[in-house]
Amino acid sequence: MTAIDDSTVRDPDTLRADMVRALRDEDGVRTEPVAAAFAAVPRHRFAPDASPEVAYSLHCSVPVKKDEHGVDISVMSAAHVQAVMLEQAEIEPGMKVLEIGSGGVNAAYLQELVGSEGEVTTVDIDRDVIDRARQCLDDAGYTQVRTVLDDGDHGVPDSAPYDRIIVTAAAWDIPSSWINGLTEKGRLVVPLTVCGTTRSIAFDHDGDGLISRSYGLAHFVPMQGEGAAQERKVVLRRGVALQTDDVRVPLEPQTLNAAMDKPRSECWSGAAYDLPDELDLFLTLNLSSPARLHAAQDVVDSGLVEASALKGVPALVSRDSIAYRTRRENPDTGGFESGVIAHGPHAETLAGQYAGLLRRWAQDHRRRGAATLRYLPGPAPAPLPEDAVLRRHGIVTATWA
After folding, report:
1. Fewer Cβ within 10 Å of end Cβ, the chain: N or C?
2. CA distances from 296 to 155, 207, 238, 310 (A)
3. End-to-end CA distance of the chain
């Protein structure tokens, strides 16, 4: 990893040049147009309350607005995440682009990419956020970018269709306004959240629906307005919680909390633990009753829950039992082995099902980019296919190479 030495470098121009070099080294920037956009935009002007070192760091987001509880509801996303999404979009000069969720700086990158003949519109539901974006864009010289105050779930139909739509908040669903707002060869790049895990996915048209061309790990603040997530979250006990957006998953907190007090069942798969983000996606979309288990550090320190749950881990849940992934060192290979921890009356059954998926992934899909995701709009078929995840406007499915 290439680091920016913020102890000696303070000049924004130098910091910006260092950022571009570091983005190339980490494969965030892969093409010359994206490199040129990042080299041109004075990123620090879009983060006036942060130090230049923070503004130009690769992996730091900058808070823009918090809610009444102090939770970020708008941020300037980290440079690396923005670069990856812009590379996914493959934007060309002269294109018409819509950005959903506005911070200002990403719209400036988009304007650099489309050039003087292209058009960029950025929309946000929050007046404070869109007004701030407008001010920062004007201050940095990007007066050509159009700013719109509206719920991004509606798109901006008066300027449609767009060659590209870039969504910069975690979306739980894909409304028809985004699909219909694309040109025939248009592309949607969206951080799509399924059962608590989010991937930035580049979607192209596929008949009446969408098909993925690339995807990558991403972290974004959640969408507000009509597109807000429909999730359920239950606290089993202090520091232990489960969340899911799959309507088929039973979440009975008292029964599942009681299960956690029962002796654990361990099942070791014999499969290598590797590429955790790819494994996480595979498990989330293939567990028959998926949720996401979260545990606080003190709960992990107590030994009740494994460290895999600190940032959330895919869990297999029944009404009275729960299973989730863990790992241990494998002295024979020098790496790690995947395993399962389970609690409850049906712990062994759930652990066996879970371990079977771990082995299947390791044997057949242990590589980057093995998934092809599809979004199919319209009424869901009944019964819902096992490999489908129900959304408000359609279903998400995945196949694995």
Report:
1. N
2. 38, 44, 8, 6
3. 30
pLDDT at 27 over 80: yes
What does residue 65 show for φ and ψ, rounded to 5 degrees?
Answer: -155, 140
Choosing from 57, 61, 74, 77, which is the catalytic residue? 77
Question: What's the residue count for the chain?
Answer: 401
Cα–Cα distance, 361 to 5 (Å, whole number)? 40
- Encoding tokens for residue 170? 């975690």
By percentage, how much of the chain surpasses pLDDT 90? 84
Structure token digits, residue 222: 């959640």
Q: Burial level of 261, CB count in 10 A (0-12/13-18/19+)?
A: exposed
- Under the banding of pLDDT at 50, 70 and 90, the label for residue 2 is very low
Other CB atoms closer than 10 Å to residue 116's CB: what's the count? 8
Beta strand spans in 43-179 (E): 62-66, 72-76, 96-100, 119-124, 146-149, 162-167
Q: At 159, is the secondary structure helix, strand, or coil?
A: helix
Least confident of 48-52, 300-304, 383-387, 397-401: 383-387
**Which pLDDT tens digit goes with each residue over 293-307?**
999 999 999 999 999
How far is residue 373's CA from residue 375's CA, in Å, rounded to a whole number?
7
Give the CA angle between residues 142, 146, 149 to the nearest 5°. 130
Q: Token pair 């990403």 is at which residue?
A: 106
Among 30-34, 203-207, 219-223, the range scoring the smallest mean pLDDT is 219-223
Query: Six-digit token pair at 188?
Result: 């949607």
Side chain identity at 87, as an amino acid letter? E
Six-digit token pair at 272?
Answer: 């290598």
Collect all residues with Cβ–Cβ distance below 8 Å to 171 and sequence separation of at least 6.
Answer: 190, 191, 192, 193, 223, 227
Q: Which of 137, 96, 99, 135 is nearest to 117 (CA)?
A: 96
**What is d(CA 338, CA 359) in angstroms, rounded to the nearest whole number?**
9
What is 279-322 written as a DSSP string?
HHHHHHHH-SSEEEEEE-HHHHHHTSS-GGGTT-EEEEE-SS-E
Q: Is 77 a catalytic residue?
A: yes
- Nearest Cα to 155, choosing from 107, 223, 206, 98? 98
Q: Is a pLDDT exceeding 60 seen at residue 6? A: no
